[in-house]
Amino acid sequence: MDSLMFEKMWNECERKDLSISKKFWDLRAEEFNKIINDSKEENIDLVKFLHSKHILNNECSILDIGCGAGKYSLQFSKHVKNIIGIDISSKMIEYATQNMKNMSIDNIEYKVAAWQSLKLDDYNWTKKFDLVFASMTPAINSKDTLLKMIEASKRYCFMSGFVYRNDNIKNQLREKILGKNEIYNKKFENNIYYAFNILWNMGIHAEIQYKSVQWNKEWDLSKAIEVYTLQFEDLEIENSRDIIKSYLESISDNGKVKDSVNAKVAWMIWRIDK
């Protein structure tokens, strides 16, 4: 298939309403901030991987797209010259900024910005960064957002995402709300697939590594209802909130909702200066 076909399929999956994304990540900012310390081993593995590519050094500049509460940028700061981290969520940026101050780090700048609508010329970011980094972020959700990564980089781009993910609660809710709609069910697992093939058709041959991951989730019932409602809100399906509320109430235990997630993640890296 040519690039236009992959572009079309990716566009069909794109979440259009950025205000929903902002609400969703604002809602989850505290949760993501708390797990930063729990993912240090994963962070170290990624730092080692980037070091093996001779990317991280004291002259390196990084753009961290969808930086969240600073999970990766805080780690990278020890190895590079400077970093700019952006996120659509102002609450994520608040946590990232506070974490930076708490760790006495002075080579990161955090900004509230949506990558999908950001214009590189407004920030003088064209060909500015040695590494444009986008880990597990829905901000890279179309050919345009992918090409913008390339335009901002002068050396490397890194993107990671799910190629497989199984969390029982979300699967059950998808089926109750949508039926067995495979297009929706798989759309977030296809970002790497679409990006890799678009790059391939451009003559860019990205390198991919796969990692198996597992984690547990626990929310208060009210928080779980809000999180899952926002995940399905842009589909504008009548009574979806009622369906979600009813199901989560039925599986809650002492006001808590618990789930276990098993997934496979792809790390994809490519060089643009050769």
Judged by helices, strands and strand pairing, the structural class is: alpha/beta
Assign the CATH class: Alpha Beta
**Please, what is the average pLDDT?**
91
Strand content: 15-25%
Give, in spatial order, the strands making up the sheet with the most strands: 3-2-1-4-5-7-6
What is the count of distinct domains?
Answer: 1
CATH superfamily: Vaccinia Virus protein VP39
Keywords:
about 270 residues, alpha/beta, Rossmann fold
Short characterization:
This protein is of the alpha/beta class and 274 residues long.
How does this structure look, described?
This protein is α/β, with parallel strands linked by helices and 274 residues long. The chain has one domain (3-165, 187-215, 262-271): Vaccinia Virus protein VP39 (Rossmann fold, 3-Layer(aba) Sandwich), CATH 3.40.50. The chain contains 12 helices and 7 strands. The chain has helices spanning 3-13, 18-34, 40-52, 73-76, 90-102, 120-123, 143-152, 168-178, 182-187, 191-201, 221-233, 240-251; strands spanning 61-65, 82-87, 108-112, 129-135, 153-167, 207-220, 256-271. It has a 7-stranded mixed beta sheet, sandwiched between helices. The chain is globular, with a radius of gyration of 19 Å. The two termini are 25 Å apart. The mean pLDDT is 91. Keywords: Methyltransferase, Transferase.
Present the secondary structure layout:
Layout: H1 3-13, H2 18-34, H3 40-52, E1 61-65, H4 73-76, E2 82-87, H5 90-102, E3 108-112, H6 120-123, E4 129-135, H7 143-152, E5 153-167, H8 168-178, H9 182-187, H10 191-201, E6 207-220, H11 221-233, H12 240-251, E7 256-271
Parallel strand pairs: 1-2, 1-4, 2-3, 4-5
Antiparallel strand pairs: 5-7, 6-7
